[in-house]
Amino acid sequence: MQTEATLIADLRAGDEAAFRSLIEMYHALLVRVARMYVSTEAVAEEVAQETWLAVFEGIDRFEGRSSLKTWLFRILTNRAKTRGVREGRSLPFSSLEPEEPAVDPDRFHGGDHNWPGHWAAPPSGFPEERLLAAETRAVVEEAIAKLPPAQRTVISLRDVEGWSAEEVCNALTLSETNQRVLLHRARSAVRSALERYLEES
After folding, report:
1. Please, which residues have CB within 8 angstroms of residue 97's CB and are 6 or more apart in sequence?
2. Residues 48 and 131 in one domain
3. Which of 114, 164, 168, 193 could form a disulfide with 143 if both were Cys (CB 3.0 to 4.6 A apart)?
């Protein structure tokens, strides 16, 4: 497996195979992240292309104070935000989220109960063999696809791509609190979709 230092050296040397492998690794994800800030898939694709050009032209100036991946996604988010503003989509990241609780409040005991705030209807357990089924994976993928853009991106980076909270915060210029809230809401929505599916089937 190629180390990041070797990859950076290859990129700086103009190695086409190194650029190709970086593009294969991250292009689809760049487009998904850009889509949070711009109005169409076509514009998101343009922003991703502009990002690759900026990486190609700026790799010699990359100082390594963050990971290559974080640097790449920072370039993307800066360009996507600028493009979004030009399109009139200048909403702040946090405003893309609906003001709604992550879990239905009816699932918790109210203030008149001995245990206010505790589960009244706790989440169902998920049988492992059913969670591994392709059909269940499709339910999860569909639930993620229906999430608001910011939630969808954060859960995709954290739970699908395996990024750390710090990487997501750095790449998307999010506060730790905002990242945690987005992830919690996304996971709660996916869990609710899974519960409904398992109860119905």
Report:
1. 148, 150, 151, 181, 182, 185
2. no
3. 193
Domain with 112, as residue range(s), is 100-200
The pair of three-digit structure tokens given for residue 6, joined into one six-digit string: 């070797």
Residue 113 is which amino acid?
H
The Cα 25–Cα 19 span in angstroms is 10
Residue pLDDT, tens place only, 58-77: 999 998 888 899 899 999 99
Q: At residue 185, what are phi and psi to the nearest 5 degrees?
A: -65, -40
Residue type for position 176? E
Q: How many whole angstroms separate alpha carbon 184 and alpha carbon 82?
A: 28
Q: What are the two backbone dihedrals, phi and then psi, of residue 162, each rounded to the nearest 5 degrees? A: 80, 25
**CB 195, CB 124: distance < 8 Å:** yes
The overall pTM is greater than 0.70: no
